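Q:
Just now I want nothing more than another pair of eyes on a protein record. Here is the record:
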Amino acid sequence: MSPEIDAIVELQGSEFKVIKSGTAAYEGRFTLNPRTSPHGIALIYTASIQPFFLGGPRPGVFQIEGDTLKWCFGVVGQPAPEGLNTFPGS
């Protein structure tokens, strides 16, 4: 039995889309900073089911291991998290 998928993340070029229940819940652009450890990412939302994400860059950190992407984000207007504080299902 495979785990239930809560969201699908599509990354193409410098654009992202998060699809939940078959609908685009979040869309926008992203920038990467691979020179930091952990690597940095910032999302700029152009559409969001959460209006407070539309105020500016949402800073985060990310890691790619094989075909697995892990990322963790801070609040719009606040610094990026210092590390990856992810857990299964998050």
